[in-house]
Design goal:
The chain has about 200 residues and is of the alpha/beta class. The chain is built from six helices and 14 strands.
């Protein structure tokens, strides 16, 4: 079977081994890059990440890849942001100040409210509730569980929300706008559900 080529952006914010292995397990030929030319030439792009929004954007700026990421998002080719990478797709984050994102989807990133007994960060398994049909949902079922680790979440128009999750508030856990997708959970830690989401992305 021919492998699907996919480029994973390494902007110095996460251990990329687990997401690389997950993509390879579902049939991807993975290329890691910090290079704008590689991003421009990619067939499909993954923007992963863990950590703080502002630090991530500073790394992206220092590597000189911000414009390449924005151009790729506007190119019509498939792009998926994972965890922090999903949040970076939006216009602004209020994590540790005000930080501008890639602004590929309209929305903002805000902190979970303090609602005891719920703890922040939101960490562990939680359900995904489908909100509309998505190409990512082929072969997966509504109200499956996925693994989360995050203290901030996205607020955006319902038009972009394909899946939502409850944790004190209802927040978007899967978003999409045309060729651009975002998933707040960690697919590589979400067993068969997460792997199927990645496999479906390879077929977009």
């Amino acid at each position: 079977m021919k492998l699907s080529k996919i480029t994973v952006v390494d902007y110095r914010t996460s251990n990329l081994l687990s997401i690389t292995k997950a993509l390879e397990n579902v049939g991807a030929e993975v290329k890691l890059t910090q290079n704008a030319a590689d991003i421009a030439a990619a067939e499909r792009l993954v923007l992963p990440g863990v950590g703080a929004f502002g630090a991530a954007m500073r790394n992206i700026e220092s590597l000189g890849i911000r414009e390449a990421l924005v151009a790729f998002g506007k190119s019509g080719r498939p792009l998926i942001g994972i965890c922090l990478g999903m949040q970076l797709l939006f216009g602004v984050s209020y994590e540790l100040g005000t930080n501008k994102g890639l602004a590929l989807i309209d929305g903002k990133v805000v902190e979970f409210p303090d609602k005891p007994p719920l703890k922040v960060p939101h960490m562990g398994w939680n359900q995904i509730q489908f909100k509309r049909n998505s190409r990512l949902f082929c072969g997966v079922h509504d109200k499956e569980y996925a693994y989360f680790v995050h203290s901030y979440y996205v607020t955006t128009s319902d038009n972009y929300v394909s899946g939502a999750t409850e944790y004190g508030v209802t927040f978007p856990s899967i978003v999409e706008d045309g060729n651009i997708f975002g998933i707040q959970f960690h697919p590589e830690k979400s067993q068969s559900f997460g792997l199927k989401i990645l496999e479906n992305f390879l077929r977009v």
